[in-house]
Design brief:
The protein has 135 residues and is α+β, with helices and mostly antiparallel strands. Helices cover 34% and strands 30% of the residues. It is built from 4 helices and 5 strands, in the order E-H-H-H-E-E-H-E-E. A 5-stranded antiparallel beta sheet has the order 1-2-3-5-4. Strand 2 and strand 3 form a beta hairpin.
Amino acid sequence: MNASHGTWRRDFPGKEISVPVAREWARELLAGRIAAPLLDDVLLLLSEVVTNAITHSDSGRTAGGRVTVRVTCASGDVHVEVTDDGSAVSAPAVRVPEPDEDGGRGLWLVDLLATAWGSHHGEAGGSVWFLVAEC
């Protein structure tokens, strides 16, 4: 599939409703630019990372909290970065969830499906990024 290049950025409120809105926004951007299986992985991982940003950072804990999503598509590879308002009490970490747990699979899925991923924390907030490469 011949992918078009581009970078897009959008801010979302630090509320649960932003998860499906961010997912649909990314779907509209990437559909037709990348293969369907790759798109499915990107949308799943985006949902997980936005959910984590809202759940575990000040973006979801404070009035006016924001989550910023940046999507870059180049040569069939997709790089996504989700920036939040940071947290003084938690940092992104992969953990293996118990089979009967309802949650806790976000970064585990990112680690499993992404070609590469990482996180950084600064004074202005934190971010988690992932790359899904076309093979």
